[in-house]
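Cross-check.
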Amino acid sequence: MTPNDFTMTKQILKLQKTFAQNNIKTLSLWLTQGERVTRTCLEQAGAMPAEAKRAWEHGSELLQSGRETIEAIVDIQFDMIAGMLNPSGTKS
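Predicted model, tokenized:
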């Protein structure tokens, strides 16, 4: 088999990677907006204990870290698949 035999597969893979990245970015934007709204509400809630606010901030940081980790894993997996389709290391 020649590298050109996988041209359509590579194009589909590129399209799926773009689709996945756009979905992750959209989800991240949506969640970030939700966090901003929640943060605004928490700032206006004077009766909320400081410990609860710190717990929410910690949870928010964990979610952000998780989103970044998932994005990195998705990129690594797509790159691994692309490498399997192109073992010689040449770009197509």
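The chain has a mean pLDDT of 84. Residues 27-85 form one domain. Passed to J.P. for a second look.
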